[in-house]
Specification:
The complex is a heterodimer of chains A (115) and B (161).
Chain A: H1 2-10, H2 52-61, H3 73-105
Chain B: H1 2-87, H2 99-105, H3 107-128, H4 135-139, H5 151-154
Helix pairs in contact in B: 2-3
Classes of the chains: A mainly alpha (115), B mainly alpha (161).
């Protein structure tokens, strides 16, 4: 009886449960760069007390409204500097984005997969 | 009497053999566990090694990225200072350039100069937004060929002299 019980309990059909984890790589964002617009060309007109009449006459001749939106020489300098600041900021943003892409997306800096 | 001693001896011997067998079995099982532990430790060491190597790689990449950004900032600051200098350049007589006065005296030529500079500045913005460089821009090496508003961006082969 004892032998029979021993044999029966040894023949379990429940197999050992294995739990394992598999790392699933996060899908890359891969956002495309925004399209680069072609900027329109603008033309500055210098107007002084000497050439004012000539400038307005020329505007009329070209079929444009005889009106100009003006800046003083100091303000022109400030506008140029502001423009340069904006441009520099855009360049820095672009460079930062490139570095992020290089760090997180390039094959050489990606961590090696462990089995 | 004699036979019961014999039986006792046999039982003692059997018990000794059984104990020995159990002892060896336990030793074997301990050895197998130790071997498995060793293998796991070795695996863990190599995994740790890989993590340390990756950390070192990351650290180097971060340093490199910071260095490149710092260099870019330095170049941009230099270009911005150059723009400021252009407006406030000191002439041969030791006077600071007055763009307003110049524009009053030579309105046509100053108009031409600022329109050209604006065109170049616009191109710089286009490049900053991702527009590809033209062959002319790429091959510019002389001062007369470059985009003076942003040479570091528009003319990668230009070396200031």
């Amino acid at each position: 009886m004892l032998i029979l019980t021993t044999f029966l309990t040894s023949c379990s059909t429940v197999s050992k449960l294995d739990i394992f984890k598999t790392e699933v790589e996060r899908a890359p964002l891969n956002l495309p760069n925004p399209e680069t617009p072609k900027l329109e060309e603008i033309k500055w007109v210098i107007i002084t007390s000497e050439n004012a009449e000539e400038v307005f006459a020329k505007l009329k001749e070209q079929g444009k409204d005889p009106v100009l939106f003006g800046l003083s020489d100091d303000d022109y300098q400030l506008l140029s500097k502001n423009f340069a600041q904006i441009r520099a900021y855009m360049i820095k943003q672009g460079a930062t984005l490139d570095q992020y892409r290089k760090y997180y997306e390039s094959e050489e800096t990606k961590p090696a997969k462990t089995e | 009497m004699f036979s019961s001693i014999k039986i006792a001896m046999v039982l003692i011997m059997l018990a000794g053999a059984g104990g020995g067998f159990m002892y060896v079995k336990t030793l074997k099982s301990d050895l197998a566990t130790s071997e498995a532990n060793n293998a796991k430790l070795l695996d863990s060491v190599s995994e740790q090694q890989a993590v340390i190597e990756q950390q070192q790689k990351d650290f180097t990449a971060i340093l490199e990225a910071n260095k490149e950004l710092e260099e870019k900032n330095r170049v941009l600051a230099k270009e911005f200072a150059a723009l400021d200098e252009r407006f406030n350049k000191i002439n041969g007589k030791g006077e600071v350039r007055d763009i307003g006065k110049l524009a009053e005296e030579r309105s046509k030529s100053v108009e031409r100069v600022i329109n050209n500079a604006t065109k170049k500045a616009m191109r710089c913005v286009e490049i900053a937004m991702g527009s590809p460089l033209t062959e002319k821009e790429k091959n510019a090496t002389k001062k007369s060929e470059i985009n003076t508003e942003c040479p570091s961006l528009a003319n990668p082969n230009y070396i200031p002299y």
